[in-house]
Amino acid sequence: MAVNARQSAPPPTFLGAGAKTRKKVGSLCSSCSPSFGSEDQAPEFVRGKLLSELSTWGIGGAARLFVEVRNREQLVSSIRHCREHNLKFLALGKGSNCLFDDRGFDGCVILSRINDMHENGCGRYRVGSGYPFNLLGIHTSKQGFGGLEFASGIPGTVGGAVFMNAGADGQETIEVLEAVEFVDTNGQTRELLKKQGELACSYRKSPFQGMPDLGAILSATFQLQPCPLSRDRQRDYLARRKQTQPVNERSAGCVFRNPGKGCQSAGALIEAVGLKGLRIGGAKVSELHANFLINTGGAKASDVLSLISVIKDRVRAESGIQLEQEVRYIPY
Ligand SMILES: NC(=O)C1=CN([C@@H]2O[C@H](COP(=O)(O)OP(=O)(O)OC[C@H]3O[C@@H](n4cnc5c(N)ncnc54)[C@H](OP(=O)(O)O)[C@@H]3O)[C@@H](O)[C@H]2O)C=CC1
Ligand SMILES: C=C(O[C@H]1[C@H](O)[C@@H](CO)O[C@H](OP(=O)(O)OP(=O)(O)OC[C@H]2O[C@@H](n3ccc(=O)[nH]c3=O)[C@H](O)[C@@H]2O)[C@@H]1NC(C)=O)C(=O)O
């Protein structure tokens, strides 16, 4: 699935010539960063950041512009800045579900590192979009609250998990999600509430995918229930994951969605057509779990895309099933 970055438009003129090296190009202009307490808090835009450093696959060329935001004001201001300069942008978490193009991204990558957490002691957690999802799974399970045990092995952020409606081990993010706060492309903050029916999700789908005026997710509120078995369950899920998935290799988790009821899982289908271990360039189908494609070193996005194409063709030819990608390909 190719992803359209938000607000496709010509690059801004203030950037000057593209640089190969990481180089600061300046902070937000004063007209679009009204709410900072001090200059020190203004996010710094960096030119030429290598996206291979920001994706679990370790693949991708340079971003035209990159900014890391650590609080809501910085995120809102960064989005307003992109809008004012007609700059396309995308929001990024841990890059565990993205395939960046070998040429990079001709826009601004906004990395959320908004890590605040507020808990009420009764299973309600309001967490910033950059909070690591795996840590949230461990933290909540240790505190005896159930519902996010599955998260402890997921290498993404809260923002990415909400956006993808992450799931594993029979649990899904939506089941315990109460509210999501986001900023739209005009820089306005808004909230969607589950009790109002505004968070309808299905398998790996959330209302945020395809939302035309989504800027970026700011925070999510989860309501969990007391569960004495939560910590044991979380440990069991993690142990099983380590046995069945190549967790120590460079991947982006499962590449294909499972086809659905009555069908085998995508991994089983790929194994059945004999493609485990198939290699194109530096990319390889995992020997442990065939729905994982590994960067064995120096893999290009084009290697991964070729492997995806071969897998789809072979599975369709031999089983009649059309596999669909779960990972998001981000074109230049
Ligand atoms: N079940 C499993 O074992 C695994 C699951 N995963 C899944 O992948 C997810 C990836 O998380 P993560 O690595 O953080 O995501 P990524 O950084 O890979 O981003 C994936 C997409 O999510 C969107 N996104 C990320 N953060 C935000 C945000 N703050 N606001 C709005 N959109 C956002 C972006 O959409 P856009 O491009 O439109 O801006 C982006 O393309 C996990 O949470 C999980 O769902 C990954 C690995 C293993
Ligand atoms: C990895 C991801 O999520 C994973 C999640 O971690 C696990 C655990 O709950 O369940 C899903 O995998 P999955 O359907 O392959 O689950 P598994 O339990 O590993 O395998 C299902 C069945 O397929 C078989 N299988 C799996 C892989 C393989 O190479 N060969 C094979 O035969 C397994 O033996 C099992 O009988 C999610 N994948 C999808 C696409 O839904 C991800 O989202 O990135």
From TrEMBL:
Its cofactor is FAD. It catalyses: UDP-N-acetyl-alpha-D-muramate + NADP(+) = UDP-N-acetyl-3-O-(1-carboxyvinyl)-alpha-D-glucosamine + NADPH + H(+). It is found in: Cytoplasm. Pathway: Cell wall biogenesis; peptidoglycan biosynthesis. It comes from the Eukaryota. The keyword Cell division applies. Keywords: Cell cycle, Cell division, Cell shape, Cell wall biogenesis/degradation, Cytoplasm, FAD, Flavoprotein, NADP, Oxidoreductase, Peptidoglycan synthesis. GO terms for biological process: cell division; cell wall organization; regulation of cell shape. GO terms for cellular component: cytosol. Residues 58-227 form the FAD-binding PCMH-type domain. GO terms for molecular function: FAD binding; flavin adenine dinucleotide binding; UDP-N-acetylmuramate dehydrogenase activity. Its EC number is 1.3.1.98. Pfam families: FAD_binding_4, MurB_C. It is an enzyme of class 1 (oxidoreductase). InterPro entries: FAD-bd_PCMH (IPR016166), FAD-bd_PCMH-like_sf (IPR036318), FAD-bd_PCMH_sub1 (IPR016167), FAD-bd_PCMH_sub2 (IPR016169), MurB (IPR003170), MurB_C (IPR011601), MurB_C_sf (IPR036635), Oxid_FAD_bind_N (IPR006094). HAMAP family: MurB. Cell wall formation. This is UDP-N-acetylmuramate dehydrogenase.
